Amino acid sequence: MKHTNEEELFAYREGEMKGRETIAAHLRECGQCRAELERMEEVFQALNALPVPDPGEEYGTRVWRQIANRLPERRVDWWAGFFMPRRLLALGAAAALLILVFYLGRKTGAKAGGEEIVDASRVRERVLLVAVGEHLGKSEMILMELSNAQPAEAGKSLINISTAQKRAEDLVEENRLYRQTALNGGDNAMASTLDELQRVLMDVANSPAEVTPAQFESIQKRIAAQGILLKVRVVRQELRTQETGSKPAPAQNDSTAKARNKA
Amino acid sequence: MAEALTGNHAGGISDAAAVERTLAGEREAYRVLVERHSAYVYRVAYRMTGNSHDAEEVVQEAFLRAYQKLRQFAGNANFGTWVYRIAANYAIDRLRRKKNEESRREVSTRKPESDTEADPLSQIRDQAPNPERLAGSAQLATKMQQALQALTPAERTAIVMRHWDGCGIDEIAEVLKSNNSATKNTVFRAVQKLRQALKPFAESRGAARAVAES
Question: B177, B85 in Cβ contact below 8 A?
Answer without folding.
Answer: no
